[in-house]
Amino acid sequence: VGGDAMATTMLRALRGEGIDCSALRVDATRPSALIVFDSPLAERRRVTYLRDGSAGSALTPADADAVWALNPGVVHVTGVTCALGDGARETVEAVVGEARRRGVTVSFDLNYRASLWSRDEAAAVLGPLARQADILFGADDELRLALEDAAPTDDALRFVGLPTWEAISRNPVTTSVHDDVPRVRHVALGQRADLV
Questions:
Q1: Using CA atoms, how far apart are residues 65 and 94, in angstroms rounded to an integer?
Q2: Which of 2, 15, 27, 116 could serve as 32's disulfide partner, Cβ 3.0–4.6 Å?
Q3: Share of the chain above pLDDT 70, in %
Q4: Is the distance from CB of 57 to CB of 29 less than 8 angstroms?
Q5: What is the predicted pLDDT for the residue at 100?
Q6: d(Cα 99, Cα 101) in Å, to the nearest integer?
Q7: Minimal CA–CA distance to 116: which of 58, 50, 63, 55?
Q8: Is the pLDDT of residue 157 over 50?
Q9: How far is it, in rounded angstroms, from Cα 25 to Cα 28?
Q10: Pairing state between β 194-195 and 187-188
């Protein structure tokens, strides 16, 4: 995070919830990233990302070393971090790779944002990461971007049920897409979002 009031407030809130922030690094030379939501019209929302030059955009794989000292049971990463720049992408890839090596559960939120990078750029990065995730979050369009024609696994169908999945997704069920992703958990959360 940056060395600014926004980061101080965020860290205070996280610590107040009992979250260990001891491995978090503060970069006093950079601002924290910011997302601004604006609704100029009732049915319309504009989103502005203020991330250029942010502390997150300067991440390097070395920044992740402190994570492993905490001996985590789960690591959670997001596609937005990958879009911030090469160093940030390399950091996420390093964390996921090391988590797989250590047997640590990988939780990955695809979180594709078209204003940050192209679909082709995102697919090339998010697809390989998604296939390494134990838990994958994404809306239908994000799943298709990362995993081509995303479909629920047999485990998900047992949990959610075939008729429910087809009603929620409005798509017939096929499971061929996840043949190369063993035991991915997938639960439909609504018409616009899925938990894989």
A1: 10
A2: 2
A3: 75
A4: no
A5: 93
A6: 5
A7: 50
A8: no
A9: 9
A10: antiparallel
